[in-house]
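To illustrate the input format used throughout this study, we show a single complete record. The first block contains the structure-token representation of the backbone; no residue identities are included at this stage. The design step must infer an amino acid for every position from geometry alone.
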């Protein structure tokens, strides 16, 4: 199979249509068979539920080539689980978990020429998405839905080492207590865009959100969880009293890597922003599928600037965690059973 003639190393994080997408519709109370399509557009009624009451959710994972030439993806079963739970919270019919993993494999296999080669740092980003296609005008769940997976090649997140980023505490809130912060719904992003645009305009790479109930605990960034390392070298992972942190698969994997592979102490507990202000943490990182870990050099809160590990270089623990997880993903380091799933 010939690879597409793309300059893999200089791809950005942007959309490019590929050969096939996967599509499956829910009609008459059941998911249809589903399959591949070369049509990358969606035609829906002007009265479709997604357009009015925002019944929509998504996932994000990636397929890539290992050193030995296998095409694999990382823990797709956890994306299937999370999308299942998200759909239930939004009164959408959950997509069967086995069918989800099979659909990921099928669509990647159909687009092998778009999977970046080993060593390029690029990956094939996989974006499952589900939305209400059925018509609704009164407020209620729709009766028809579409599940879709698009894939698109994306470039290396960091072209040459992970560089520290500067983030700010957002004056906005991301997620309400007992709200939807723990599910991967597009609606959580719509209301974060203004905060995002303002943070970027002020020179920050990302927002750090505090819990909206007391505004004293650290929750997460706009699209990534945050983790810390304290002076004793313990990995400190914020937990939410109000269950409003998105359960990042990267973060959950890093906890296992830290504890079981690197032999580190790990504390998963609520973290007060006052601990950050007091200088308790010597390293911090944002974690998610795209970057794995973005080291955080400093955190600004209004007029206050808190140096974490500084803007010169990523701290040693974040570097070790990142290298270990990316090593497991690429097959260079043996990871827990079932994490790396072979597609081709
Ligand atoms: C997707 C997402 C993350 C990262 O999750 P991963 O499974 O690690 O990619 C973190 N926070 C939010 C709000 C997200 O939507």
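Output of the design step:
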């Amino acid at each position: 199979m010939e690879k597409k003639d793309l300059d893999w190393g200089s791809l950005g994080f942007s959309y490019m249509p590929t050969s096939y997408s996967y599509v499956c519709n829910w009609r008459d109370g059941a998911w249809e068979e589903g399959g591949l399509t070369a049509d990358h557009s969606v035609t829906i009624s002007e009265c479709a539920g997604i357009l009015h009451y925002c019944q929509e959710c998504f996932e994000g994972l990636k397929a890539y080539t290992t050193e030995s030439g296998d095409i694999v993806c990382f823990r797709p079963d956890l994306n299937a689980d999370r999308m299942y739970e998200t759909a239930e919270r939004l009164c959408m019919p959950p997509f069967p978990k086995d069918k989800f993993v099979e659909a990921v494999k099928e669509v990647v296999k159909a687009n092998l020429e778009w999977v970046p080669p080993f060593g390029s740092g690029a990956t094939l980003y996989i974006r499952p998405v589900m939305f209400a296609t059925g018509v609704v005008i009164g407020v209620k769940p729709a009766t028809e839905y579409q599940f879709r997976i698009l894939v698109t090649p994306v470039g290396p997140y960091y072209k040459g080492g992970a560089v520290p980023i500067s983030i700010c505490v957002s004056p906005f809130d991301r997620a309400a207590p007992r709200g939807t912060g723990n599910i991967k719904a597009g609606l959580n992003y719509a209301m974060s865009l203004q905060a995002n645009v303002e943070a970027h305009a002020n020179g920050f790479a990302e927002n750090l959100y505090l819990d909206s109930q007391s505004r004293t605990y650290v929750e997460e960034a706009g699209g990534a969880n945050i983790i810390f390392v304290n002076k004793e070298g313990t990995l400190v992972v914020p937990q939410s009293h109000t269950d409003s942190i998105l359960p990042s698969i990267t973060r959950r994997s890093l906890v296992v890597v830290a504890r079981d592979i690197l032999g580190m102490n790990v504390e998963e507990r609520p973290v007060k922003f006052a601990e950050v202000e007091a200088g308790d943490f010597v390293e911090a990182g944002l974690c998610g599928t795209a970057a794995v870990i973005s080291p955080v050099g400093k955190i600004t809160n209004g007029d206050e600037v808190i140096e974490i590990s500084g803007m010169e270089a990523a701290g040693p623990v974040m570097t070790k965690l990142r290298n270990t997880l990316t090593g497991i993903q690429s097959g260079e380091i043996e990871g827990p059973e079932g994490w790396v799933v072979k597609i081709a």
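Structural context for interpreting the output: The mean pLDDT is 96. The CA atoms of residues 36 and 324 lie 35 Å apart.
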